[in-house]
Amino acid sequence: MGIFPYIYFMIEDFHITEDKSRISFYAGMVTSAFTFAEFSTGLLWGRLSDKIGRKPVLLTGLIGTAISVLIFGFAPNLTVALIARAVGGLLNGNMGVLQTTVAELITAKDHQPRAYTVMPVVWCLGSIIGPMIGGALARPCISYPSLFPPGTIWDRYPYLLPNLFSAFVVFIGVINGILFLEETHAEKKLRKDRGLELGNWILSGLPIFRKCAEPRDEKSKLAEMEAQPLIDHDEQLPGYQTNENSPENSPRLRSASVPSISWDSLDLERGHADSNLGISRIFTRPVILNIVSFGILAFHTMTFDQLFPVFLSTAPPEHPMPISLPFKFVNGFGLDSKTVGIVLSAQGAYQLVLNMFIIPPILKYFGPRRLFRFLVIAYFSLYLVTPYLVLLPEEYRMIGVGMVLVWKCTFSSMAYPSNAIMTADSSPSKLALGTINGVAASTASLCRAFGPTISGILYTIGLKTGYSGLAWWCSALVAIGGAIVGLQIREPLPRIDDKIVPTNDAEAGPESTQGTGREAASGSGT
Question: Which long-range contacts (CB under 8 A, 24 or more apart) does 315-318 make?
Answer without folding.
Answer: 315/20, 317/463
